[in-house]
Amino acid sequence: MPETIAAMIAAMAQAARRAAAEIARADAATKARALERLADALLQRKPQIQAENEKDLAAARAAGLAPSLIDRLALSDAVFASMARGLREVARWPDPVGRLGPETLRPNGLRVRRMRIPLGVIGIIYESRPNVTVDAAGLCLKAGNAVILRGGSEALNSNRALAAVIAEALAASGLPPEAVQVVPTRERAAVLALLKQEGAIDLIIPRGGEELIRFVVEHARIPILKHDRGVCHVYVDEGADLAQAEAICFNAKVQRPGVCNAMETLLVHRAEAPRFLPRMAQRFAAAHVELRGCPETLRWVPGAVPATERDWGAEYLDLVLAVKVVADLEAAMAHIAAYGSHHTEAIVTRDPGRAQRFLREVDASVVLVNASTRFNDGGELGLGAEIGISTSKLHAYGPMGVEELTTSKFVVFGEGQVRS
Prior knowledge:
The protein is an alpha/beta fold. The protein has 2 domains: about 5-225 and about 385-415, 3-Layer(aba) Sandwich (Aldehyde Dehydrogenase, Chain A, domain 1), CATH 3.40.605; about 230-375, Aldehyde Dehydrogenase, Chain A, domain 2 (3-Layer(aba) Sandwich), CATH 3.40.309. The chain is about 45% helix and about 20% strand. It has a 7-stranded parallel sheet, with helices on both faces. Strands 5-4-3-6 form a 4-stranded parallel sheet, with helices on both faces. The protein has a 3-stranded antiparallel sheet with strand order 1-2-16, with no helix packed on it. The mean pLDDT is about 95.
């Protein structure tokens, strides 16, 4: 590892540790003002930021990146509006820091409670999607944390521009700019250096593909909260409302195929396959979705590509969909258990009993009945902006908002008690 990169990351981590102490003490009003100021600044500086984003987009097109990945990289007017709206929403939320939980009275008179506190310094490693830079900054600030952000190399110009605006908004609000830092290099050595900052960084959150997650797990000396790939399924049950199923499946795959909560495998009950699959395939074909099907799927959709074993565990992030006909609910849940990634799973059914079984027995961070997988999102589930979707069960599972970026400590009130 180049010494200059290691020294730079170490200095950033120490600065973040100092900033974390200040942010943890900041009151709710100061943090809210900083978030509102940042929302205003993003909209005011949009032309300059989009000019830097266009450099990244041009390089991505020249490199032949898939259209779905370029879509994730783009900072459109709609994305700016969404970032600003998310920051303002987070600013209005109750501040979790310092909040006390219920009191327990011990036999010796001690009064015991739990207090929400920041995690400290968080390192986030992610790919594409420069809007994550703003979402993460806002949530970490609200929760009283400092954060070091290492975005994908393809978004470096965009992230540098966003980092400059964030730093100005923090400084103008009387908060340390070092509370939000972006690693300013494409060198992968910077990621390795970040993973070795034990004592300065409290938690690493990797968001990305299998290769990134594996690299972080192998090299980190810091606790990790994984935001892994999304191999998401929709199961169309026997007796389902097929018009409803068609709308849900189309939305789950086509609305934004390059995101982690898009459907990657469609499971259809054998009794519904003859009626459902031909009409669903026709609608997918109009949207240029390539279908890769099991032998029984090919019976009803002759134009589908024969699926291989690799397709069942694939996260395509593109207009490609694996399709399998299953015997029943048990077979659908067994397939999900074998190939799912604990991200998002959905059932379309009219049967309350089978819906409850699916909810209880399917292991995923979000499980839905009669709704698109695209709703596994912090904003859609009432959290506002999100750090990401945790596929780990410790210390959070599912979309991570402000509450999930804090922990708790015990606080004990006594009147002179001593232990015998």
